[in-house]
Every structure is written in structure tokens, then in C-alpha cells.
Amino acid sequence: MSTQTNRKISTQESLAVTLLLVGIALAYLLLFLGLPLLAVFVEAFKKGWALYWAALQEPDAWSAIKLTFIAAAIAVPANLVFGVAAAWAIAKFEFKGKSLLITLIDLPFAVSPVVSGLVYVLLFGAQGWFGPWLQAHDIKLIFAVPGIVLATIFVTFPFIARELIPLMQAQGKEEEEAAVSLGASGWQTFWRVTLPNIKWGLLYGVILCNARAMGEFGAVSVVSGHVRGMTNTMPLHVEILYNEYNAVAAFAVASLLALLAVVTLVVKSLVEWQARGQGVRLQN
User: Fold this and answer.
1) SS (H, E, C) 117-156
2) What is the pLDDT of residues 45-92, one digit of tens each?
């Protein structure tokens, strides 16, 4: 058998294997992602647009929607500041405790969100370490909006830092050192050199952080107290409605979460495409 024939058979086998793998991947995505997502929207609109819209306008649902966006609007900027500062320190400087800082950043990935919520209850609850002092000063964290924000910040703060650390390490220190040697201050170096180099990775991390903040359930469930109309986010409100057999309203709110997830995926894909166009490799 000639070399050309061997190459042809090898190519045909590779094509067959590729098509098989692609088919398996598409079938898996359709079964475990596409169909459930489709089912959410089908069930949400099952009894018509009027009931769907009424479910979203219901006061408790509207309160849950607003609280979800409030928690994300506070948690994401807070994690943005922390993530950039931590990544800049870890990637550009050597200092004692660097490995400990990296470990602390990864901590929310290793700890169950339910456990992290329980820790906040043990610290700031009525019977917690700081509970009596908080009560004496009329400060309420647990079973209130501040506790939800704190829990959301905790479970989401690794995303931006973990996206930027390898990116900044790969870029090295040469450009910053050159800027400093030319007389640039620390802030000038950051704004004119560092930030433009990490803008796509930063945006990518913000998208992931925001998606997790709006969809968080475990930690928020523990610290919220499930006070209807006051401390329920969208995921918690969906659970309550479903447990009450109010399927239309539950799927209506769930469809809004699913729509936000789809928009997030589209924006994420656009950012990845733009980053690849500029030769930036993002962490997935």
C-alpha cells in the first residue's frame, strides 16, 4: 500500500472520529443544556404572555429582581477593586505571605457556599461572636440586605483576581519597569501601561463575577432568612414559588435568570473573540 493511500485512510479515520466526537458533544449539550433551557421558557409562557408579565410585576418578584441587581451592583465593583489590587501585587511584586494570599483567594472555590453562609451567621448572627455588639448598636447584617451582599462578595471575589493573575504574570514586568525608569509614577504606570494590557481579561472576569453574583443560591439562602419581599433574591424567589406549586410564576422568574445567563454567554463569547483578535489568551 502506497504512502498516499495510507495518508488517505488516516485522514478518513480522523474525520470520522472528529465527526463522532462533535456529534457526542452536541448531543450532550442539547440534552443537558438546550432542552432544560427550552423547557424553562416553554413553561414560563405556557399560559400566555399576560400571566407571564403579571408574575414578573408581582411585588415580591419585583423586590427579588431589584435585590439581585443591588447585590451584584455592589459585589462586582468591590471584587473589581480587590481583584485588580491582588493580581497586581501577586504578579508584579515579591513579598512575604504571597502564597497565603493566593490560598485565601482560592478559598471560596474550596468551601461550599452553604458553609460560607453559615460562617457569616456564626459571626454576625444574634448568637454569634459579634451578634450582641451589633444588636447593641442596632446594626443588622444577617437576615438583611447587608448579609446578602457580604455573602455574594465572598463567593464571587476569586473570579476577577484569578482571571488577571496568570495574564499579568505572562505579560511580565518589563513595560512597567520601563515606564518607571522614564519617570512615570505608580498610578501613571497603572493607568497607561498595566490597565490597557489587561482590559480584556478584566472585562472577562467582571462578566463571570456578575453571572455568579446574580445566580448565587447557597450562601445567600443561609443568610437571607427568606423574608418574602425583603431578603429574597431571584433564585430564592423561584424556590419559594415552586414549593408553593406556582409553576407559572416560578418559571417566569427562572426564565429571566436564564435570559440573563444567555446574555452573559453572548457577551463572554464576544469578549473572547475580541481578545483572541488581539492575541490575548483568557483563562476559562
Assistant:
1) HHHHHHHHCCCCCCHHHHHHCCCCCCCCHHHHHHHHHHHH
2) 888 888 889 888 899 999 999 999 999 999 999 999 999 999 988 988
